[in-house]
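re the bet — no i am not wrong, look at it urself. input seq straight from the record:
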Amino acid sequence: MTTTAPDRLVAEIRTLPDALRLRSEKQPDETAYVFLRNGEEPEDSLTYRELDDDACARAAALETAGLTGKSAILLYPSGLEFIRTLIGCMYAGVAGAPVQVPRRRQGVERLRRIADDAGTSTVLTTAEVKRDLEERFGDLPELAGLTLLNTEALAPRSSDAPASYALPVSDPDGIALLQYTSGSTGDPKGVMVTHANFLSNVVETDELWPCEPQGTFVSWLPLFHDMGMLFGVVLPLWAGAPSYLMAPDAFIRRPARWLEAISRFRGTHAAAPSFAYELCVRAADEGRTADVGDLSSWRVAANGAEPVRWGTIRAFDEAFAPYGFNSRAMAPGYGLAENTLKATGSPQDRKPSALWLSARALGENRIEIVGEAAEGATPMVSSGVPVLGTQVCTVDPVTLELCPSSRVGEIWISGPCVAAGYLGRPELSEETFRARLRGTPRTAEQTYLRSGDLGFLHNGELYVTGRLKDVVIRKGRNYYPQDIELTAESAVPGLHPNCAAAFSVDDGTEERLVVVVEADGRVLRTPGEQELRERIRDAIRESHRLEAEDILVVRRGALSKTSSGKVQRRACRRRYEDGSLDAFVVAPAGSARVSR
């Protein structure tokens, strides 16, 4: 049987290991996780009892290795071994730090920086990843001194030899995980997420988007990322509902696989960034969703990327209503790793909403609500409300005073989900995680997490307008890069969603607007490279009354992005300035080439 909501709020659950131990006792033979090969057929599965046994076996091996009380890198491809080891680390008191498996040297360099920051030389992984790293990158100095441990060999599968391990009492205030930030706004930093943070976040998320009996999760998100971990691993375990997982590549290659899995396994909860919904819409437009089936079971379609686009919400609803998708299922939300994840969300069974704002007023950090048909009107999607113990306010980032509802300010958050800080960075942690409003004495208990995001509150709901440090300022007006990027992506048919980065560059005399756009040879051959740039420049000029001094076209995959697909604007700016972003043009004969 699947438990009901009251059963999940039992007093003995104080940590995620408590939740698994309870599940393994009360519903031992029910399916907990299933991994889908190529995003389609079940390849590996775990019941709650099997997961508990496997996690205990790994915990015993980690304890024997002397890792209790220390940290370790979790370096896993998509699959269930990550979940076995993640829970095993929590059982053994090891602070795991999930990291994306490197594909290039830059990934190996990032792995080493994170290992050094976490103070560990231990990398937990699979035999296949270990072999691949040693064969491809074994001569790199960044791997020197790192110990790669194949956790599949640490202990046999539970089906072969059930483990016997005395589960220690977990401290709710102990570090459950080191969640390294994806780096969309700076160098990755290790967020210290406690067991209490994890539990508070899943309780709040379950309050907002409850998983009732017979609920099912379906996810393609990378498990090493906070959103993928919450919706693919943590929330299903808390809810006692099965989770069907696929590799991100399976979704990217054919987005309809995600929707087909939701239909086939009667998924009720699935989350993704905005660009994923855009890819699904494009697949529908191109006639590649014939096998999707029935989406009427989908009750929560969490949409948590920055930005959540109103046009995408409308297009997805229109494209998939014929498949049974209920528009009330679309649930925009807002979160960040420093708050464990979710901070606000649109309540379940309520249609998403947007305000139409004056773009000119918004450029002056003022909120002026206008009609949809008004000249210069721009839609801003509601990211919903905080629930239970979380509080959200907007603050002037200079004066540190509360903003009125008519002004844009920095989003500040308080509550039980706010993490303990950045590992080994006490001054930055004090500044970021324990901020105080102007006039508040330092002895006061009320502190806030400074998100670095901009937004405003209207009727208690949060509207996110952009990143504090990404705003383009021209002649005293603010322009949000995501608006410019959307204009660029829409200027030429065939450009993919999430394929542009807009930022300003100071050349010593003035600020210049640069827009970098990814394209492939097929798109370039139609209008031509010069024509493509001019169309984008004209579209930006017409929509924003703004001149883009440089439009750079690069090949698909060239933009710097986070593990969740967000464009890293500052990284793109650095690469633009040092000349490492290669322009992609089409030679006269039609063959693609790269020029500098």
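see?? The first strand starts at residue 31 and ends at 37. told u. also The chain has a mean pLDDT of 88. so pay up
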